[in-house]
User: Fold this.
Amino acid sequence: MEEWRLIDLGDAEPLIAQTFYEAVAYAVDRGLAPNTIIFVRPASPYVCIGYHQELEREVDVEYCRERGLPIIRRSQGGGAVYLDSNQLFYQIIGSERSEVIPFGVKELFERLLQPIVYTYRRLGVQAEFKPVNDIVVQGRKISGNGAGKIGSSTVLVGNIILDLDYESMARVLKVPSEKFRDKMAQSMREWVTSLKKELGSVPPLEQIKEILVEAFEKNLGIKLVKGCATSEEREIWEKEVKPRHLSYEWLYQPESRHQSLRAVKVKGGVNIVEVDYKAQKLIRITLEVVEGRIRDLLISGDFFMIPEEALPKLEEMLKGATLQREVLTKKIQEFYSRYRVQTPNVAPEDFVEALMKAASELF
Assistant:
């Protein structure tokens, strides 16, 4: 039986709640810390965007600034969300050498989310695991989850949803009209739920944590030992993680990769096109094409890609390619193979289709 550390950070300010697990993951990777599970609850509201999303296309930045809502880009994919103290986070950080941690992302979610399903059921909510990474109650989402790699550490993060502020969830997002926002809020009420909505009240937080501990030990076959963050982990957070997350380059990293796409002057033989392609997740392609070949491109969206930092390599591999299906298919398949990429809910063919949709806008 593996022995894992349990850290309870209590209520923490948003940046710590959202990012401290990264410092732990670096420590685990460097052999400075054991496999760890963290419990933490945000002390105040903030907005969190997915690793591959373009900030100002997804979030009403001005509204967030006016309300003093921090915006934090997480290290995993997925969509933009409003988060507050009505969520209890669990953050699982394990070495790839652990027998608890499967390599495949689908298998990872299926195994590590078993304790969360168990916890909801112990609380009286008939939750079920819905592949790839959701937990639902009669089709309504009651837990959001993401996963990634930090060095040799595997990370899975998610939340127990205690209650939901549907109006704030809809208000922070960039939408085409207020009518659309109203429809979005109504859709959220129908398809996203919480412990309060299901049970009529929120169970005591300590009770939820106790059941989570029992669930992780029983379902994963591990022993959790209460511990605390080490001085090395706090130093890693202060010197490495915190400065990165506070930087403009991190917050605007997809846009910063390809500023030329925003500034280029279109002339004869030069075309700029942008398309959204909806597979199970959104893929957005911004494409600069010169004489039928890709000169530059930006790929963004709410998909998950592991390893997360591989996406710029795909963009680089596609530069110079002609917009022909067989050419694009070969390059994208090579990318998946070379970098051992996994994209749950998105197939390599989806990126091909997104590019072909862009091509159809040009020719």
Observations:
- The longest strand covers residues 2-12.
- The radius of gyration is 21 Å.
- The chain has two domains: 2-251, 258-362.
- The chain has 16 helices and 14 strands.
